[in-house]
Amino acid sequence: MPDALELVHEDAKLVAVNKPSGMLVHRGWANDDVVAVDLLHAQLGQRVWPLHRLDRGTSGVLLFALDVDTARELSGAFERGEVHKRYLALVRGHAPAHALIDHGLRHVDDKQSERKPAQTRVRRLAEFERYSVVEAEPLTGRTHQIRRHLKHIAHPIIGDVRYGKGAHNRMFRERFGLHRLALHAAQLRIADPSGTAELTICAPLPEDLSGPLAAMGIDLAAI
């Protein structure tokens, strides 16, 4: 784990980091010694309020408020679906050029729970052998939504030990040194609490994902 988180945005009300894969956002989800909230608190020397979550294996833009009023205001924006998120993922198979996955999801730990509406827009960006890099834009905010939706259309994410395929995950570990979930939160757009403008925050691909992609001949910067 890093000694400090990579800051990708900072102003008087907000700070965003490029969360590394393998790090939890909150303490309490597991017994990890290092979580993003505590690390950023120590790094900035002040309290921070996480406005959303990323799965442990997902890297990318993670947004925090620097005061309780901003946290309250923007948490509501996330809950109302007013925040636009753009993810990148490496998946099994030849993904469709464009697709809207409209598939309701149950609670991840309760197969008897009622399905809630869930939609994800997917666009293929590149292909490598029998695999694809896709852009995924969740239009709703269900737990593990992108991972579950891509599995639903038979394109599970590489490195996903819960929803993916072990043989493919092992191949990418051995051949390309990919030892993580190949899912990255690349961009987040939200109304700027300091004014009326829209704030766009981007997080570059970390080396543990960009390196394996480069070894496959995929340069997302050129797409």
From TrEMBL:
Keyword Transcription: no
Catalytic activity: uridine(65) in tRNA = pseudouridine(65) in tRNA
Keyword field contains tRNA processing: yes
EC number: 5.4.99.26
Pseudouridine synthase RsuA/RluA-like domain span: 14-152
InterPro entries: PsdUridine_synth_cat_dom_sf, PsdUridine_synth_RluA-like_CS, PsdUridine_synth_RsuA/RluA, RluA_PseudoU_synthase
UniProt function note: Responsible for synthesis of pseudouridine from uracil-65 in transfer RNAs.
Protein name as it appears in the record: tRNA pseudouridine synthase C
Native source species: Enhygromyxa salina
